[in-house]
């Protein structure tokens, strides 16, 4: 069974080293438009990991090819085909779930029709639960927690906060945003039936340039808290509008820590009033992980917002080493058995039933640096502080996946 340590750990070669094989990875995410900062950050993570793993071993040489999908499903499929035509045998994508749904269908059909050119799809950030339920695919592996898992962790934290009385939901109008809003309603009702939902709004994905009218509605509703799955410019502009309006609400988010987010949170002045559910922040890793973080920042100029990218690349390399090959049909059986200590946290593993990776989850708040904190974010002098932790075993949710495995 596949096993490995954190991203900071040294990876050993398995058996004798043959001639080095180049493994091309097609990175497909928004590199233009409102989602560009998010996509660019993801690209830097995978490029950095390619450099690290290339330096650690000589069996496989990773090369990352970048393609802009403009957060558009059709553009995603065009990019995927370009990547495959360029020799990529691993596709990486994360933003957003509508693009992921198109891509997973494409990969399944491509692999069936092209048995000699099969590809692995590594999903590092598209969290619509359907991708590992009714739309599950043998060739798809998700290294981010799905939105239901994240909402479970977030609402477990929120239920302990008696000051929360009125909640406003604002989310993006596509499959992921719809999942966030429906699960927020259901889980709050089960865990804190006294909380009143005073607003429930959806906005077009990455198309709103001014969230001031929405902030006006939030203020008028009397909400003391906001739940949002918004990402990229949609979370940054929402927080910017809140800061400009002086909205004194708590924000419970999935992606406030994305590129530009910490700067905007700092501008709100809401110390420890903006929360994010994630797989860990820079300041709580062990010594080796923190040294890895320091090296990553020095090389890329950004903080790590995607520790799951480190997990995915480590798992991918080790699966290839175990298989002695980069061929998808040989790598997939190894990857679905992966057991690995996550970059931050304790236990982590891929569930073979649906190819969902389970890991320790955290809730953080953002505020002024405190003793013992090494890393601030984006030069703000503020950093993420852990305020809640959910162990891997407590993140498990059932799946409806009925995996169609190749014969």
Automatic annotation (TrEMBL):
InterPro entries reported for this sequence: BCAA_transport, Leu-bd, Peripla_BP_I
Pfam families documented for this protein: Peripla_BP_6 (PF13458)
Family: Belongs to the leucine-binding protein family.
Cytoplasm listed as a keyword: no
Signal peptide interval: 1-19
The keyword Transmembrane helix belongs to this UniProt entry's keyword annotation: no
Record organism: Methylobacterium tarhaniae
Protein name: Branched-chain amino acid ABC transporter substrate-binding protein
Domain Leucine-binding protein: 22-363
One BP term from GO: amino acid transport
Transmembrane segments: none
Keywords: Amino-acid transport, Signal, Transport
């Amino acid at each position: 069974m596949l096993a490995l340590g954190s991203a900071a750990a040294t990876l050993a070669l398995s058996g004798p080293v043959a001639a080095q094989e180049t493994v091309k990875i097609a990175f497909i995410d928004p590199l233009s438009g409102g989602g560009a900062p998010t996509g660019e950050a993801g690209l830097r993570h995978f490029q950095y990991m390619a450099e690290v793993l290339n330096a650690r071993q000589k069996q496989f040489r990773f090369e990352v090819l970048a393609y802009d999908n403009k957060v558009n499903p059709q553009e995603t499929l065009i990019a995927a085909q370009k990547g495959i035509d360029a020799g990529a045998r691993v596709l990486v994508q994360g933003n957003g779930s509508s693009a992921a749904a198109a891509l997973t269908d494409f990969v399944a059909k491509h692999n069936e029709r092209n048995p000699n050119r099969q590809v692995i799809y590594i999903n590092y950030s598209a969290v619509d639960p359907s991708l590992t339920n009714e739309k599950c695919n043998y060739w798809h592996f998700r290294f981010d927690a799905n939105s239901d898992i994240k909402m479970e962790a977030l609402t477990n934290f929120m239920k302990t906060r008696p000051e929360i009385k009125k909640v406003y939901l604002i989310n993006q109008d596509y499959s992921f945003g719809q999942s966030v809003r429906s699960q927020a309603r259901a889980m709050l009702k089960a865990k804190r039936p006294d909380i009143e939902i005073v607003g429930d709004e959806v906005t077009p994905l990455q198309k709103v340039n001014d969230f001031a009218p929405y902030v006006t509605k939030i203020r008028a509703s009397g909400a003391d808290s906001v739940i949002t799955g918004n990402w990229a410019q949609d979370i940054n502009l929402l927080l910017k509008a809140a800061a400009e309006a002086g909205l004194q609400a708590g924000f419970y988010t999935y992606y406030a820590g994305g590129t530009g987010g910490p700067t905007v949170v700092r501008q709100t002045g809401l110390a420890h009033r903006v929360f994010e559910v994630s797989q860990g922040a820079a300041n709580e890793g062990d010594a080796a992980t923190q040294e890895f973080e320091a090296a990553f920042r020095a090389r890329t100029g950004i903080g790590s917002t995607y520790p799951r990218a480190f997990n995915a690349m480590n798992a991918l390399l080790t699966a290839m080493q175990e298989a002695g090959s980069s061929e998808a049909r040989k790598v997939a059986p190894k990857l679905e058995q992966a057991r690995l200590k996550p970059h931050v946290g304790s236990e982590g593993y891929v569930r073979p039933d649906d190819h969902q990776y389970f890991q320790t989850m955290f809730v953080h708040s953002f505020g002024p640096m405190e003793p013992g904190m090494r890393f601030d974010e984006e030069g703000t002098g503020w950093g993420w502080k852990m305020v809640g932790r959910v162990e891997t075993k407590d993140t498990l949710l059932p799946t409806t996946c009925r995996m169609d495995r190749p014969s």
